[in-house]
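F.,

This is the one I mentioned.
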């Protein structure tokens, strides 16, 4: 299944998400904590995308954004924490 990860930021909160036919089917939310870090607080993937790696792709999109901004990520969401702590490729952005 093909889908595109989108990004929205509104003030100190933001999200990476996937919409299919105008409906959110995957989402990872974050909140800024100062200027040098954001906290991933929630990740959810609907059954429509289960098994497609959508959750990991959302985390990867967040990490790419952190690298672009030169900031760190504190993953309080259990899923994002497991993904990031289990992959040395995230060491540069993990707070």
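My design for it:
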């Amino acid at each position: 299944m093909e889908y595109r990860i989108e990004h929205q930021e509104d003030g100190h909160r933001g999200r990476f998400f996937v919409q299919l036919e105008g409906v959110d089917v995957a989402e990872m939310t974050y909140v800024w904590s100062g200027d040098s870090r954001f906290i991933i607080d929630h990740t959810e993937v609907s059954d429509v995308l289960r098994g497609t790696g959508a959750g990991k792709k959302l985390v990867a999109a967040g990490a790419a954004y952190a690298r672009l901004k030169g900031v760190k990520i504190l993953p309080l969401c259990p899923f994002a924490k497991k993904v990031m702590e289990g992959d040395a490729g995230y060491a540069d952005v993990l707070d």
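The domain at 6-90 is CATH 3.40.630.30 (Aminopeptidase).

Talk soon.
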